[in-house]
Design brief:
CATH class of the largest domain: Alpha Beta
EC number: 2.7.13.3
InterPro entries: HAMP_dom, HATPase_C_sf, HATPase_dom, His_kinase_dom, HisK_dim/P_dom, HisK_dim/P_sf, Sig_transdc_His_kin-like_C, TCS_sensor_his_kinase
Number of strands: 15
Strand content: 15-25%
CATH superfamily of the largest domain: PAS domain
Largest sheet: 5 strands, antiparallel
Shape: rod-shaped
Subcellular location: Cell membrane
Number of domains: 3
Order of helices and strands: HEEHEEHHEEEHHHEHEEHEEHEEEH
Radius of gyration: 54 Å
CATH architecture of the largest domain: 2-Layer Sandwich
GO cellular component, one term: plasma membrane
Number of helices: 11
Pfam families: HAMP (PF00672), HATPase_c (PF02518), HisKA (PF00512)
Distance between the termini: 57 Å
Helix content: 40-55%
């Protein structure tokens, strides 16, 4: 969730809670004040009418005496927009004001709970619905001696007031909803406008990240607020990174130049040493054939020493050549490429690989997928690439075989080198292409510099290819070199990807 959306949601939530509390408070205050006024007016009018109640004695034919209650002062009773009713608990008779009788309304009798309040000589209000009308009723007890003779009820119609408060509730809810929607939209607009400089900072930072020029800076023309200080901090960090990168690049450049120069300088004396050693070895072999036995023994020992010197100088020459190749790779030298036919190139390497030092069987598998396939590459480096993997397989395979074959997809050609050697753990596979890295189980047992696979990886990258490795300890390894196909002969395309058979349906 973006900061812009979070800010908008926070503003909207705060405003919604504020409006909710304000609406509830306003509605409750108006309701309380209004009904306090209505109750106070009803109480005054009810007390005035209550004082006009007069008891009347009724004598029955049997001589029994009962009391009834009548309302005096009809001018007060009928002109106050209030309704009045007297309930006689002894006879159960109801007497209402004329306006109540004209309306055909009878106020509901008191409940048992309300009667308990009247027995305690307590007056109270209640809100009751009669039919579809809402009434506010004021209840007052009518005592007769020490007994409760009846109840006087003064009522006022509050149906219009309830509708008014219903309209008020609707207005509050509708106004609050519209206000929240408008505030959220306006808040989104303000948040977007306030955070727009951050988007500019992000875009500038992305352009700096994707570009090669670390000298670019984030342009900010706004005030020196939090965003301005953040921009200044990022620009300062970029400046320090540029300085550190420049120093590091200069250090790498000097290192690459040193390795390249040293490799060039070492090749000449090593070549001279190897040439002189070969010459001395030939001369001593001729001398050893005519000398005495002690002299021949001494010359044979010298020849062994010279042979060791020649071997070590040859190993140093390979190391220097590998370092020179990597120095060229680090310097970004682009190798020349041309369209090459893969089958003759790989077949030639397979034929020459039989002459390499090995102790296992060399198998040339199916190379027919290479027929008619062309790649854009460098012949010498591609041959070196295959030799590196083949020599590596011979080096780490004591028994079994090493096999070379080819596989093909629609857009790539793969050269597969499989062996039955020592294999590797899955954790070691990603590191074998690092310089001077060697598998621990082979360290000290097999000769090598640890640079061959680094050179192979560089050659693959220069040809826009990839390498696939499958290996298990003790079971061997399989390397598949994938190279993009630049073109393929028409005959081979038809053989590899034949057209669909005719369905028999004639096109118009």
């Amino acid at each position: 969730m973006s900061i812009r959306l979070r800010l908008t949601l926070w503003y909207t939530a705060i405003l919604s809670v504020t409006l909710l509390l304000f609406g509830i408070g306003l509605y409750w205050l108006l309701n309380v004040l209004y009904y306090d006024y209505i109750e106070d007016d009803l109480r005054k009018q009810g007390d005035a009418v209550y004082r006009q109640i007069q008891p009347r004695i009724n004598v029955t034919l049997g001589g029994d005496i009962s009391f009834d209650f009548v309302l005096q002062g009809q001018d007060i009773v009928n002109n106050t927009n209030k309704f009045y009713q007297i309930t006689n608990f002894q006879t159960g008779k109801l007497r209402g004001s004329e306006n109540l009788e004209d309306a055909g309304i009878v106020l509901p009798p008191v409940t048992d709970a309300q009667k308990q309040k009247l027995l305690a000589n307590t007056s109270f209000f209640s809100r009751t619905q009669v039919g579809k009308l809402q009434f506010l009723i004021y209840h007052m007890p009518i005592p007769l001696g020490n007994q409760l003779a009846g109840v006087f009820q003064a009522a006022v119609l509050v149906d219009s007031s309830e509708r008014l408060f219903g309209i008020l509730r609707f207005i509050l809810v509708f106004t609050a909803s519209v206000t929240v929607v408008l505030a959220a939209s306006f808040g989104w607009f303000l948040a977007r406008k306030a955070l727009k400089p951050i988007d500019q900072v992000i875009d500038d930072a992305n352009s700096i990240e994707k570009g090669a020029d670390l000298g670019k800076r984030i342009n900010y023309t706004g005030p020196n607020d939090e965003i301005g200080r953040l921009t200044s901090t990022i620009n300062g960090m970029l400046e320090r990174l540029q300085m550190a990168y420049s120093e590091l690049e200069e250090s790498y450049r000097r290192q690459r130049r040193f390795v390249s120069d040293a490799s060039h300088e070492l090749r000449t004396p090593l070549t001279t040493i190897r040439g002189n050693v070969d010459l001395l070895e030939k001369m001593w072999k001729q001398t050893a054939s005519v000398g005495s036995v002690p002299e021949r023994q001494q010359l044979e020992m010298s020849l062994e020493a010279m042979h060791d010197i020649a071997g070590e100088s040859e190993r140093m020459s390979r190391l220097v050549n590998d370092m020179l190749s990597l120095a060229r790779a680090d310097a970004g030298i682009q190798m020349p490429k041309m369209e090459l036919q893969m089958l003759p190139l790989v077949a030639g390497v397979a034929r020459k690989a039989q002459l390499l030092p090995r102790s296992v069987e060399w198998i040339t598998g199916d190379l027919t997928p290479l027929q008619g396939v062309y790649v854009q590459g460098n012949r010498d480096y591609l041959q070196q690439l295959i030799y590196i993997f083949v020599e590596n397989a011979f080096k780490y395979t004591d028994q079994g075989f090493v096999k070379l074959d080819a596989v093909r997809t629609e857009s790539q050609i793969g050269l597969r080198i499989a062996d039955t050697g020592i294999g590797m753990n899955s954790e070691e596979v990603p590191m074998i292409f690092e310089r001077f890295y060697r598998v621990d189980v082979s360290r000290g047992k097999t000769a090598g510099t640890g640079l061959g696979l680094s050179i192979a990886k560089w050659i693959i990258d220069e040809h826009h290819g990839s390498i696939q490795v499958e290996s298990r300890p003790g079971e061997g390894s399989t390397f598949i070199i994938w190279l993009p196909i630049s073109s393929i002969s028409d005959s081979e395309r038809e053989q590899a990807f034949p057209p669909p058979e005719d369905s028999g349906i004639l096109e118009e």
